Amino acid sequence: MVDSKQQWKAWIYLAPAIVLLLVFTVWPIFNTLRMAFLENYNGLQASAGASFHFGIGNFVKVVQYHRFVQCMKNTILLCVLTVPISTVLALLIAVCLNSIKPLQRFLQTVFFLPYVTNSIAIGMVFAAMFNIVGSFYGTENEIVVTAGIINNIIEFFGGEKINWINVGSEYWANMFVMVVYIVWNALPFKILILLGGLQSINKQYYDAAKVDSTPRRRIFTRITVPLLSPMLAYVVITGFIGGFKEYTSIVGIFGETMGPPDAEGRLNTMVGFIYDSLENQSQGRASAAALILFCIILLVTLVNLWVSKKKVHY
To answer: Rounded to two decimals, what is the model's pTM?
Structure first.
């Protein structure tokens, strides 16, 4: 405890952090809430002295936007597909890493590298892997299409090239690329968290299971998963929160068009819709969309916490 006579020193030390939080966190939250209920709010017009009426018109415009359903569908679909897959894969990889002692630190570093790499750069690499680069004329003037490494692998096993992200590509192909990329990008953080949880489990549980000759599958389902459930709940909740905020991964692969050149906006998400509104100086509509997204994330998080209370063993 800090002596009451010395508390002013503590406040002085905390003052810079408090000021930064108030300016860059607290005030933007209140300002977003204010702009959301000012109909047709425009920052440039507001700076010129224009006044705006209080109402829910911005929320109505967001819901009536012709691509709102598509943005919501893409956001929810990416969350539902990527979070379970990435969590299960991270759990299996973490269990395997935990059993490999000699190369554990080296492999941890290898698996963690994508987490510290720029998302846009990773997206460009994935775009090159799935891309059909172009075409050129061969020796007899026949058209030869050069493909990325994924299509080369498919052809090696006797399959045909798939148009993943280029003009004329299908929606399922675009979504498949995004799911692969997001799952791969989400693995490092989840592996690190789950591996730390595994290493904190008391070894006596496993020793007792060995004495009873318990099968490995039963050890995994009856000891590892229940004791690791707090960490699993954490990565699932943070995974859904991150999934609802997907934007940079799509930009990294498809660019600002958020889809193939002939289908712009096909993979647009709620965050992408917010950025589009900001670029059009529609701060009121962007704020309303941000509040809608916040309510969705809050609802999903509360559901996850409610499930965690029944399934998580602390």
So the answer is: 0.85
